[in-house]
Amino acid sequence: MAGGYKCKLPADWYAVLHALTKYRDIHADAIPDEMLSYAKKHNRYIQRVRDLDGAIKTGKIQVSKKHEIGIPQGTSMSAVLANVYMIPFDHAMKTLAQSYGGIYRRYSDDFVLLIPKAVSRSSIRTVIRDINVMAQRLSRLQLEKKKTKVLLYTKAKESVVKLSEELELSPSVFDYLGFVFDGRCVTIRAKGLFKFSHKSRHSVRQVAFGQNQLIKGNNMIYIPYQEAYHRLTGQYLNMSEEAQTFRGYASRADKIYKTNNPGYGVKIDDQARKVVKKSQLYLNERRKEYAQWR
Fold first, then answer.
1. 10 Å Cβ neighbour count for 216?
2. Helix (H) or strand (E) holding 175
């Protein structure tokens, strides 16, 4: 049952779901000290999967019994189940949006309602109240007040402003799914750029250090180095517009925004190219630095 709707998964999907509910876990307190020490140096607990199997078989790590309910975090089934559960709410929100001549979009628990028609500020309160009622009645969910925003976009003024509960206006931006629109231009969220840059630099240091160690004859680092090298060149330094990478994703998003462009600027791809270029330069700098250690 999902919000009063009867939903039956296909046999193969149900088999996957049933298997996922039989998962086991390892409590953080049960991780041996040597693995914790290894993780501090290498950013992972083990070097090979078989090391984990060996630790379990020898009793170094205690594994829980099989669970009977719930599914492990991080599986793609989570998104599927969430979408199934939200079907009644999605239908109601779509109807509400259409009544105002607008559109409704949702990604996981993050949704947006766009209303192009002129709506009075008092009516906006009614809309929010209706959404809250539908969320509780259809999905037993409640809107998070701190994350709920009412934004007004004026094309003529090229501005986005926030409407407070007291019906006061203040400058703001439309921040959704990693992109930010300030009324004039669409850009990548600053946090997204920082996270990519941080992970990229970490990978760069691993590769530069690994290359130095291999040249010095330390072959023990070969396998971790290979993995780090492929991750670096495949994910962080790849400038291809077609690749499944940060730059590739940014390039495709940039084209979509420009295709649908009603007159605003788009700087998504420019930002991505700059941050990848910085990572490439950073790799050269670290190579020179570690070369001095030989």
1. 11
2. strand 174-176
pTM, 2 dp: 0.74
How far apart (Å, rounded) are the C-alpha atoms in residues 205 and 47?
18
Q: Which stretches within the chain are classed as H helix?
A: 11-20, 33-42, 49-57, 77-85, 87-99, 121-139, 190-215, 222-231, 246-259, 268-291
Determine the Cα–Cα distance for residues 293 and 36; give it in Å rounded to an integer: 28
Return all residues near 24 (Cβ < 8 A) that are at least 6 apart. 63, 64, 65, 66, 67
SS in 3 state form for 190-228?
HHHHHHHHHHHHHHHHHHHHHHHHHHCCCHHHHHHHHHH
CA neighbours closer than 13 Å in the CB half-sphere of residue 178: 14
Amino acid at site 54: G
| Joined tokens for residue 50 | 């078989």
Q: What tens digit of pLDDT does each residue of 131-152 get?
A: 999 999 998 888 888 888 999 9
Can you say how many angstroms the Cα of residue 216 is from the centroid of all Cα atoms in its chain? 39
